[in-house]
AMP nucleosidase (Marinobacter lipolyticus SM19), 460 residues
Amino acid sequence: MTETTINALVSPEGSLEILSNHEVNRLKDKSEGGLYRLFRQCALAVLNTGVETDDCKSLMEAHADFDVRLVPQPRGLKLELVNAPAHAFVDGSMLRAIREHLFSVLRDIIYSYSIPESASGFRRDDPQDITNLIFHILRNARVLQAGRQPDLVVCWGGHSINQQEYQYSKEVGHQLGLRALSICTGCGPGAMKGPMKGATIGHAKQRVKNGRYIGLTEPGIIGAEAPNPIVNELVIMPDIEKRLEAFVRTGHGVIVFPGGVGTAEEILYLLGILLHPDNADLPFPVVFTGQQENAEYFEMIDKFIRNALGDEAASKYEIIIDDPARVAQTMKKGMKEVETFRRAMQDAYYFNWMLKIDPVFQLPFAPNHDNMLALELHRDQPVHMIAANLRKAFSGIVAGNVKESGIRQIQEKGPFEIAGDPSLIQPLEAMLEQFVAQNRMKLPGATAYKPSYRIVSRAA
């Protein structure tokens, strides 16, 4: 990949980052226990904002000579960038949004790793400690705003969508913006960018000065889904499970646009939580939406959900086709219900403490060949556990498609194998085939999509 690069010394944008000697040394440490490699990977990802790629491994290889170094200063620190992509600069100066994102990476990586080390008695497998860690990361990033009425709509959907689907997501965002609602997405391109871009126009028309465009990501995915330019609050969570919990704890409702395996993972995570008996009375508006051309797509998703999780799961969402205004009206009405409920229960508007999340949805799942084949994909378990294990299957496919570690495993050992009850995995295989046929697995590239998974019988 031939591209102009720039060497630059960059000052913090926003709050001045103050680090201890120990933190600086961790960031410089290139060993397995150090943070240098993680920091470099995330920094390179944000410097590639706006670049159409979803292959983290290829991105890292294309910029093998990129380096980022900490330069201590009397008033804090600066970052020295070596061979940084030139498109992150205008007339020799880094774009302000990218500079903000760069120091968000620094802030979140340091904070995510320092809390478990410094907090007395912190346990990585304790559900309450996990939720508290998520709260502290979000609070440190100034995402949690006390006193603000519920207005945050989480938008999920594919990064690999066609132009018509993108325009539809943008129009939905526009209608949300006209109703002074803010947007939270996975921060990348496609259905993550469209709603934010549309909302900026809606906010401008209504003279909304404090519109929010929050991007929540994690180190494994940020290289494949670099922050889009609209994001004005970027947060890097430690892993996919904490990213998903951050979505449902901070968001007040969810809109799902057409997508691939990542979107399916998010849907199963959300439904698995909403199906927990303790959450039965919790208002949480969920809408699946797309153009008329997407009606069959959502029929497929709905059929898969009803087969795997039952009709009760399907009662947790509403499907609205080709009606952006109605989607926004449904969300606005849902926000009022959330506000009324939270006030009555004296629960915070900015963080959903009452939401019950089973530990199976919180503990990190490591996608590798052994773990993928060992997934419990059968019906002899509670319905929320079926959702949890299907979520892990989709998470593994995402890793094999776009995450550097997953791509390497597939190259070394071949596709992940998935086995289970035919009544679950046959519909799963059929849906995955549709995702492939509709180009929802990866961004269109020079080579055809090669599946990172293989459905096998349990006897194989």
User: Anything to note?
Assistant: The radius of gyration is 21 Å. Residues 147-359 form a domain with the Rossmann fold fold (CATH 3.40.50.450). The first strand starts at residue 5 and ends at 10.
